[in-house]
Structures are given as structure tokens and as C-alpha cells.
Amino acid sequence: MAGQRAQWKGFIKFGEVSAGVALYTAASTSDRITFNTINKATGNRVNRVFIDSETDEAVPKEAQTKGFEIENGQYIIIDPDEVAATIPESNKTLEIEAFIPCSDVDDVYFDKPYYLTPDKMGSDAFAALRDGMRKSKVAAIARTVLFRRMRTVLIRPHGKGMVATTLNFDYEVRSSKKAFEGMPKIKIEGEMLELAKHIISTKKGEFDPATFDDRYEAALEEMVKAKIEGKALPKRKKVEISKPNDLLAALRESAGRMKAAEDKPKRTAANANAGVGRQRAARGAAPKTASSKAAPQRKAG
């Protein structure tokens, strides 16, 4: 990708076929507004300093190392070289272990997406894999060492290239049972269910990421701009609290509003057409009446 530095370069292998590939960051937060920590008294930027928890003295970077707490306040020292030595050996190869249906992986396992492109040599092999997966409607599961960690990667065709999404390990994903265990068992049916279905049907659409703006980021930008220009800060709009507390009443009100909004253009168009018809009839009738009065009557012969 022109103008962008690859985050990782290596090979992708399926069967006895391999191709050089590169990974590029697909999502980034670098364009977000960031703030620095400032000393209120001086207006100067504050630097971060690591302090010894017992002596309260600053610890320079060269004196810092890693440690694992075995008891309260007791640590074993871990040298960075020891950490590096535990990283599994890797020949920089995305070794495809299996091809699976795209829907087999629950989205909760998705971590971070990267664009996967051919790196100079091996474009034909890359294209063969991409098109074969697209035709077969499958994704690929591969493993390799990325950024000092063994990672499982889900690879899917995407446009001219592919997307490689790192996956969370099973022990990293919390069980949904614990999150939902406090939920009461409720069965919705009858009018309440029909109203909910109606509201859903009137709000159906398609996902277009370009239509979803980062309102928080936009508000920050507006606030910073106002501060720079010395203008009054924008005031937050009051939040309208929903009046009905009853769920069924709220569903009825929502469904009614949506139906009114849905029918309004139709009624407006019908009224407009009727109005145009009346205007045309009025314009057509007037000349006819005038000409009938002015025209000489023929005598019966």
C-alpha cells in the first residue's frame, strides 16, 4: 500500500504453495484528538516519571525491569532477554491450518484487523488463494508470531486483497453465561411482540460506515476550535426524557410516530396531486366558459 509502512512482512502458505505477503493496519486511532498533561501553574507539559514505591525516588529507564508478583509486595525479577527467549520460533510464515465457513467464528473473538497484500513476489499464488476462498465461500485459520506473540489469525477475501483479523484466545473471552445469569426469563408475545416487529421493519437499512460519524470527536474539535478563537464554548443540548414508563405504551407511541412519518410523504403527495388537479380544472373551466359566451350561436337551418 503506497505511502503506508507494513506492520509485518512474511509468507502465507497453503499446501505446498507459498507467497510473500505484508500486513498493514486497517484501523487506527492516530487521527483522534489527543491531549497532553499540563502544569496549571506554569502552563508547561508534564513528563511522566516512575517512582520507587518505597523510597519515593525516581527510577531511570535503564534501572527498570519486569517482575512477577508472587505474594503481596514480593516479586521475582524477569529479564527482558528471558521474555524474548520464550517467544515461539517462527519463520515468519502464516501457516494455514484449515479452511472454515466464514460464519463459524463468533465476532466476540475478533481482535484487530489488518489488510493482507502480496509482497512483490508471489502475486499469482496470492490471487489464486484469494479467488479460491471467495468461490468456496470460506475463511482461513492460520497461526504465526506477530509482535512477539503467537497469534491465531482469521483470513478472508476483501476487495483486491484479503483481511487478516487477529483472534482472541478462548481464555481471553469471558463467558456470556456469567454476564446473562442475572437476567430474568421473559417471553414477549402478542401485541407487544407485533409492535416490536413493526418498529424493526420500519427501521431496516444497510450498514454504511461513512454515515456514522464520531460525535464525541466532532464535539472535541468544536470545543478546541472555540477555545483557540476565544469564542464561547458550545452548550450541551438538553436530553429529552421519554414520558411513557409503560413498555407497551412506549412501543405503541413509537410505532404510531413511525407510521405517521411513513405515511406523511404519501399524504403530502396525494394532496399535492389533488391540488394540481383542482388548479388545472379551474384553469381549464374558465376559458371554456368565456369562449362559450363570446362565440356566436349558429342558427338552425
UniProtKB/TrEMBL annotation:
The gene is ku. Residues 269-295 have a biased composition (Low complexity). Residues 252-301 are annotated as: Disordered. InterPro entries: DNA_bd_Ku70/Ku80, Prok_Ku, SPOC-like_C_dom_sf. Residues 254-266 have a biased composition (Basic and acidic residues). The keyword DNA-binding applies. Keywords: DNA damage, DNA recombination, DNA repair, DNA-binding. Belongs to the prokaryotic Ku family. With LigD forms a non-homologous end joining (NHEJ) DNA repair enzyme, which repairs dsDNA breaks with reduced fidelity. Binds linear dsDNA with 5'- and 3'- overhangs but not closed circular dsDNA nor ssDNA. Recruits and stimulates the ligase activity of LigD. It comes from Neorhizobium petrolearium. Residues 56-185 form the Ku domain. Homodimer. Interacts with LigD. This is Non-homologous end joining protein Ku.
